[in-house]
Design brief:
Elements: E1 10-13, E2 20-22, H1 34-43, H2 46-54, H3 59-69, H4 74-82, E3 88-91, H5 95-104, E4 108-113, H6 122-126, E5 135-138, H7 139-142, H8 149-159, E6 166-170, H9 173-181, E7 185-188, H10 192-201
Parallel strand pairs: 1-4, 1-6, 4-5, 6-7
Antiparallel strand pairs: 2-3
Length: 209
C-alpha cells in the first residue's frame, strides 16, 4: 500500500473575513438606515450580484440589468463600488500574524479569494501582510469563483501545490467542502487562535495560541 505524504508545505488563505473584515453595510453608515440597507440589498439581490462581480463581471456590464430591475437602488450600488474601501473595516484579529509565523517557518503562503478585479486594489492597502504572500489568485481576474472546482484546479496548475500537503482556510462551508473534495486539508475559519491551533496540530512549527 502506498503511503500518502500529508506533511503540510503550503497554506492557502481566503481573504474576506479570514484576513480582512468585510462588511458591505459599512459603506452606507451615516447615509442609510439599517432598514434602507436591507431593502437595497434585497432589491438588487446583493449576494448573487456580488458573486457575479467576484466571478469576473464588471459593474459596467451588470449595471443596466440592475437599473432595470431596481431603478431606485442602482445609485446605491454605484456608491458601493465607488466607496468600496469603506467596507473593509479592519484586519481579522490575529490572522496576519499567523501568516507571518508561517512564512518565518518556511511554509509557502498563498491567497485564493473571491473578489472583484475592480475593487481588489483596496485589499493590500487594508492588509499589508498580503504583500508578503507568494501569490494571490483573485477570482475576478481569472473569471472563476469559489466554490467552482475550476478555480482550485487553476491554483494547483499555476503554483504547483500538492493538495494533500496544503491547508486551505475559508469562512465559507461551501468553499471548504469544494476544497476537501479535491484533497486539500480544508478548514472552516472561526477565529485566528483556533486556526493557529489547527496548524500546530498538523505539525507546523509556529507558536501556539
Amino acid at each position: 500500500m502506498t503511503t500518502i505524504d500529508r506533511t503540510v508545505t503550503t497554506v492557502v488563505f481566503d481573504l474576506g473575513n479570514v484576513l480582512l473584515r468585510w462588511d458591505p453595510a459599512a459603506v452606507f453608515e451615516g447615509r442609510l438606515t439599517d432598514t434602507e440597507v436591507a431593502e437595497f440589498m434585497a432589491a438588487v439581490d446583493f449576494p448573487t450580484l456580488n458573486h457575479s462581480l467576484d466571478a469576473g463581471r464588471t459593474w459596467a456590464q451588470a449595471r443596466p440589468e440592475v437599473a432595470e430591475r431596481a431603478p431606485g437602488h442602482v445609485h446605491h450600488m454605484d456608491a458601493y463600488v465607488r466607496d468600496f474601501a469603506r467596507s473593509l473595516v479592519g484586519e481579522v484579529p490575529g490572522t496576519a500574524q499567523v501568516a507571518r509565523d508561517l512564512l518565518a517557518a518556511g511554509i509557502r503562503v498563498l491567497g485564493l479569494t473571491n473578489w472583484s478585479a475592480e475593487t481588489f486594489e483596496h485589499a493590500p492597502r487594508a492588509a499589508p501582510v498580503l504583500a508578503e504572500f507568494e501569490q494571490i489568485l483573485v477570482s475576478g481576474t481569472v473569471g472563476l469563483a469559489k466554490p467552482d472546482p475550476a478555480i482550485f484546479h487553476l491554483l494547483i496548475r499555476t503554483t504547483g501545490i500538492v493538495p494533500v500537503q496544503t491547508v486551505f482556510i475559508d469562512d465559507s462551508p461551501a468553499n471548504v467542502a469544494a476544497a476537501t473534495e479535491l484533497g486539500f486539508q480544508a478548514l472552516l475559519f472561526t477565529d485566528a487562535p483556533t486556526f493557529r491551533d489547527d496548524l500546530v496540530a498538523r505539525g507546523l512549527a509556529i507558536p501556539r495560541s
